[in-house]
Hints:
Layout (H helix, E strand, L loop, with lengths): L2 H19 L26 E5 L9 H14 L8 E5 L7 H10 L4 E5 L4 H7 L7 E5 L21 E6 L1 H16 L3 E8 L4 H16 L4 E8 L8 H13 L4 E5 L4 H11 L2 E6 L14 E7 L1 H13 L7 E3 L6 E3 L9 H15 L11
Parallel strand pairs: 1-2, 1-3, 3-4, 4-5, 5-11, 6-7, 6-8, 8-9, 9-10
Antiparallel strand pairs: 10-12
Amino acid sequence: MGSWRTRLLVLVALLSVVAAACGDDDGDTGAGGDGDGAAAECNQDITVGMAFDIGGLGDRSFNDAADAGLQQAIEDGLVCEENTETNEANSTGSDRDQNVQALADAGFNLVIGVGFAFSPGINTIAPDYPDVNFMIVDGFATCGTACGLTNDAEAIANVADFTFKEHEGSFLVGAAAALKCECDTIGFLGGQQGTGLIERFQAGYEAGAQAINPDINVLVDYIGDDTTAFNDPVRGEALSTSMYDDGAEIIYHAAGASGAGLFNAAVDADKLAIGVDSDQYLTASPEQQPLILTSMLKRVDTAVYTAIQQTGDDSFGGSLVFGLAEDGLDYAKSNPDELTSDIQEQLDEFKQQIIDGEITVPDAPA
Length: 366
């Protein structure tokens, strides 16, 4: 880092020593203390910068899940809070590359791009920053020239794509939907169409529902064909309302912040919804909570935490894929009034069958 940061860290360390020396004699400490007046230890040797995608903090989904991983790493002492920095993309995402480059120019040891759209930019600049580790959530930067990018993987050894088997987790919530409603029609609301990523959610959801009811009809709507589709709750509500009106009893979304529109539509229709990425029951309004059957948990927090841990112990390198077997996915159980124990038992059986290889979940819609 630059000299200003070095001076700042020295000042922080000196202030910590003074504070400890002037502490109360009764040994009382604030949060994070160990009971003898000493502050919780953290790794001062690394710095972490994170660039959020469209929707930013407060999306109650993808970006918030990433931030949860960063906050857990801070709490566990993997990195010191003062050695972290985050920034957010604008409403169109046109400043993504600028935001990442600003973090790299500042000399952060690890720079995290939260979303696949960071891949082309990081692929291009990574060779210019050989001392910076770059991790991309849902990234494809290491696909290289085969994916139309500038650099092949061997030229960007400091880049890792952390991806997920979203179709596996979506299978579970698809099965949950069919088990709960015992109906003929359910729905799927996608964000950006055409990248293959959100289509994995759709494929798993459909397969899980069809495992319960082979004749079930799954209505499908996508919000758009660019990344702004993840930040359009108004359109998300309109499309969800249309699917409810067309007979869908439960709708699952993979639409980022646009999914807030689904929950509004669920209240108006008095029908069930399924969240994504984080446990959206926990951040929903009181009138929405009873209608959120479950959420497909995509452990973006685990990916972020892992990248920070690897950087701290100097083991960063190589892309990772998180599936059910790697605890990278799961389903939420916060609404047992709707997701009853008998449904959970069947989902857990499916989960183990997927882990054991007895069920292979498709990763593209039929």
